[in-house]
């Protein structure tokens, strides 16, 4: 009879969970992968990999009617792979590729991604004139004045007898106000990814501090008043606190990346 062999686990080797066995990379050089050209005459344009020549070169196609990139061979080191991919075979025709992109709305998804918006914002800042920069400076000064006005309002309203529930309500209001500011200033589009993540993280952490503060701050009223005001000032460095005190500011002729 045949003997079965079982692989015994080493006692000192921990068992990895299923999540740890997931692949580290999800962007592969494959047919249908949408990529961004980073060097050459077509730098800044998107293309789709249609065939693989060798380990260093691939054949890409825009198509030309969609992105302005003709079908040609280029090295992989001049491409930045994205998360988007269309289901096409190697060496597909331009007509087939164009139909697949339209079916999956790949270009629309790319335009709505944070990466594409960051590139658009960078291009907007580079194309600004001196007068556009002046209008941007004026708009930023008005916005900072409105934020300071709202900060003074909260600092004067909150006293040493302010309860934690009132502070928690203000923290929730600030989180809701964050989305309103984005829609008002950036036309419903998010900010630069890194800045958006940093500001959202700061808001979330400060809101948690405001909401889950222990009772020891309430025992010493004088200390709690200082803590309340400092926390509010930190929050107001990122967003204003009152919709009635904050007037929407617009800057005519500037794109979405002007306020970044």
UniProtKB/TrEMBL annotation:
Q: Name a single GO biological process.
A: ribosomal large subunit biogenesis
Domain Large ribosomal subunit protein eL14, first and last residues per copy: 70-143
The terms describing its cellular component in GO are: cytosolic large ribosomal subunit
- Which CDD domains does this chain map to? eL14
GO molecular function terms noted in the UniProt entry: RNA binding; structural constituent of ribosome
Q: Which SUPFAM superfamilies match?
A: Translation proteins SH3-like domain
Query: Which InterPro entries does this chain map to?
Result: Rib_uL2_dom2 (IPR014722), Ribosomal_eL14 (IPR039660), Ribosomal_eL14_dom (IPR002784), Translation_prot_SH3-like_sf (IPR008991)
**Keyword set, alphabetical order:** Ribonucleoprotein, Ribosomal protein
Which family, according to UniProt?
Belongs to the eukaryotic ribosomal protein eL14 family.
- The name this protein carries in UniProt is Large ribosomal subunit protein eL14 domain-containing protein
Organism of provenance? Polarella glacialis
């Amino acid at each position: 009879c045949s003997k079965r062999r079982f692989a015994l686990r080493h006692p000192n080797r921990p068992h990895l969970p299923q999540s740890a066995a997931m692949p580290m990379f999800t962007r592969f050089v494959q047919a249908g992968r949408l990529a961004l050209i980073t060097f050459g005459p077509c730098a800044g344009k998107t293309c789709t990999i249609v065939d693989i020549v060798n380990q260093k070169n691939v054949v890409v196609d825009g198509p030309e009617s969609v992105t302005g990139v003709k079908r040609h061979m280029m090295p992989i080191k001049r491409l930045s792979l994205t998360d988007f991919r269309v289901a096409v075979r190697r060496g597909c025709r331009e007509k087939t590729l164009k139909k697949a992109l339209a079916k999956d709305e790949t270009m629309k998804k790319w335009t709505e991604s944070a990466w594409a918006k960051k590139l658009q914002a960078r291009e907007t800042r580079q194309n600004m004139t001196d007068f556009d920069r002046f209008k941007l400076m004026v708009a930023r000064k008005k916005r900072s004045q409105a934020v300071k006005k709202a900060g003074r309002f909260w600092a004067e309203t909150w006293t040493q007898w302010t309860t934690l529930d009132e502070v928690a309500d203000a923290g929730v209001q600030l989180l809701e106000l964050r989305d309103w500011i984005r829609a008002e200033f950036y036309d419903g589009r998010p900010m630069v990814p890194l800045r958006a993540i940093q500001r959202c993280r700061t808001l979330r952490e400060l809101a948690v501090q405001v909401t889950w503060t222990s009772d020891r701050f309430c025992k010493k009223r004088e200390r709690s008043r200082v803590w309340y005001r400092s926390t509010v000032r930190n929050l107001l460095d990122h967003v204003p606190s009152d919709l009635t005190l904050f007037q929407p500011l617009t800057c005519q002729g500037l794109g979405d990346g002007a306020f970044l």
